[in-house]
Amino acid sequence: MEPSPWRGVLQRLRRDSEYIAIPVIALVISAVAFSLFLLAIGKAPLVFFELVHRGGFGSAFSIQNTLQRAAPLIFTALAVAIPARIGLVMIGGEGALVIGGFTSAAIAIPMLDRISPMPTLMIMALVGALTGGVWIGLAGFLRHARGVNETISSLLLTYIGIAVMNFFVEGALRDLTNPNKPSTKPLGDAYMVGKIPGTDVHWGFAAGILIAILLHILMTRTTFGFAARVTGGNPRAAMAQGLPVGKLIVICSMLAGACAGLAGFFEVAAIQGRANASIAAGYGFTGILVSFLARHNPIAIIVVAIMFGGIVASGGLVQRRMDLPDATVLVLQGMTFVILLVSETLYGRFAFFRIDEGRDRT
Amino acid sequence: MNDGLITTVLIALLGGALRVSTPFMFVALGECLTEKSGRVNLGLEGTLVLGAVVAYATSYHSGSPWLGVLAAGGAGAVLGAIHGFVCKLPRVNDIAIGIAMMLFGTGIAFFFGKAYIQPTAPRLEPLSLGAWTGDAKLATALQINPLLIVGVIIAFCMWWAFANTRWGLLVRMSGDSAPAARAMGVSVDLVRFLATAGGGFLAGIGGAFLSLYYPGSWNQGLSSGQGLMAVALVIFARWNPLRCVAAALLFGATGAIGPALQSVGVTQGYYFFNAAPYILTLLIMVGSAGSKQAAREAPGELSITK
Known about the structure:
The complex is a heterodimer. By secondary structure, chain A is an all-alpha fold. Chain A has a domain at about 75-295. Chain A is built from 15 helices and no strands. Chain A is globular and about 75 Å long. The model of chain A has no long low-confidence stretch (mean pLDDT about 90). Chain B is mainly α. Chain B has one domain (about 5-295): ABC transporter involved in vitamin B12 uptake, BtuC (Orthogonal Bundle). Helix content of chain B is about 70%, strand content about 0%. In chain B, strands 1-2 form a two-stranded antiparallel sheet. The model of chain B has no long low-confidence stretch (mean pLDDT about 90). The chains are: A mainly alpha, B mainly alpha. Chains A and B meet through helix 6, helix 7, helix 12 and helix 15 of A and helix 4, helix 10, helix 13 and helix 14 of B.
């Protein structure tokens, strides 16, 4: 009997659905675990999820707020996903975000009122991406050149990045007219990134989606992406094949850092209007979880980032209505992350997702 | 700068080394134990923070700081046990789980810590070992916290036990060659589970030091990467408990550079000196990661040095 031509497609769909089903199972288990946690401290889980729904996705206003917060998450998650494809666990997105945001604010200071807004913003974005790229690129370079563990070094660079920003913001670049909070000179309304027409969401969200799609194409449809994935699968085999492993590692790290740097640029130029400690709001760390949940797939990252943008956006409402500390979101994220990683052990254990290739031929 | 100032700075550095090195020491010893068994726990930063809040809360409610130290160790052991249990499952990445446990531990600590930012808990009393010097500054610098002494004793015990006891041999064997250990009938998973839980216990005590001795209160900015630096420090100390102590003292002194210079009137670059320990850690990693000596002494099963 001739197998139907649809059979292969269906089988592939069935096999690939494992990569969606298992993270979804992990999410459900996390929600149950977090509900038990809330019950244990005497709070109602249903109220919590209802508030997250209302605060994150309930109205046009809250959805726009959610998308606004999803923008930096897309970028910082990409900063984890690209190195992950080449086999690195790079978690320094927060530092590259801070250093990118700070340098873009710093480069703007001499240009304000001298150069028109559009070129200024272009230069700011470029500088932010560049310094962010150098920041994570350094961790990638040290990994290749000296075998320094990139997870630790990128996190150390985060602390260094925050210290560098504080050094300048509290010193040489401090705006003395603002006594409340050490900040750089404000950009002013004319020099801010605008909103996407018809919405309250800044252009960073659109840029994030565009860059996620471009990076997806780069990693799946080009020789560069193929070489990077081969290196991620087996660095020794890649080296034996004559692939420029070191170069690939450094370029992937720089791309990652550039993404996080852009997140910093948009936080400065679209939200805060200046560089100060507020830009280190933890987007870099949430981005790690987003990337892992999306299995380091740039397209999936967009969806997961919007979901977590909603959770972040509803934080204030949850705090006020349920009298929960702001760390509640951290607990939820931590639990989800642990459970998600544990769920990795489930891959290949369910017969449903396995395809018996040989069955038709006999 | 004249001699008087230099002496002041040096004494401040000595005081700083003795004062702030303890959390580095405990976390490094804990990680040393875990890594000797062939597993990496990057989550000790979270353990440190959770230990700090548990110690503070226990000390506040019970009135006994030492009970707080024990409770912190217990909380750390629980986090370590979770890490140890999860990592033995197939296809679970110990580096990624470490990051997740770091976020989880910090989240839980901040969540329950909110109520303890205001109240004052009984703290650990320092031991004054500097009275004989007759110098007020030196005497202040030589105020030793009891946990430092406990840490040094633990370091010596670990160093001796790794070389001379059956348990030490089991841990080292699991770390150097899991197949060999299995062939000898050793349950590698069990050894690593216990070593990770034990490592968590020590890291938790390091956290107790932060909230009960120096700075001696609880707030969310209590630990800024000490746990992580201590993990990096173990590679530098080449998995030797005694070298962990020395490296912790070095780190304490580095962390004290900023305040020490400030005490003699050099205020410029205070924030830069805040970054000094991180930069030093990075430089040390660059220096020690590639060295052949370190590669030779590394536990063979360790994923972090591969």
